[in-house]
Design goal:
Length: 93
């Protein structure tokens, strides 16, 4: 099963951004990195709070990734993304 699209808004030299990227990859995610300093609107929006992590289009973390919350988010995503294997007329367990 493919994992959700993940984006990390970052900036060059940000050690917290590097740690966030490493943690996300340990969970099997393949985050897209976006340097906020390359876009004035992103720099204005996120300048004091990188890294900012979006998972499946929703902003989930600013500055720090809580591993427990990340696990819960991924577990919930897997449940909703998993195909329903019930037969017609049969209730899921």
């Amino acid at each position: 099963m493919e994992l959700p699209a993940t984006t990390v808004y970052t900036r060059e030299g940000c050690h917290l951004c590097e740690q966030a990227y490493q943690l996300l990859t340990r969970y099997g995610l393949h985050p897209r990195l976006v340097d906020i300093d390359q876009d004035p609107a992103l720099r204005a929006r996120y300048t004091d709070c990188v890294p900012v992590v979006e998972i499946d289009g929703t902003e989930r973390f600013r500055g720090y990734i809580n591993p427990l919350l990340l696990e819960r988010i991924l577990r919930a995503w897997r449940r909703t993304a998993a195909p329903d294997h019930t037969s017609p007329g049969r209730e899921p367990r």
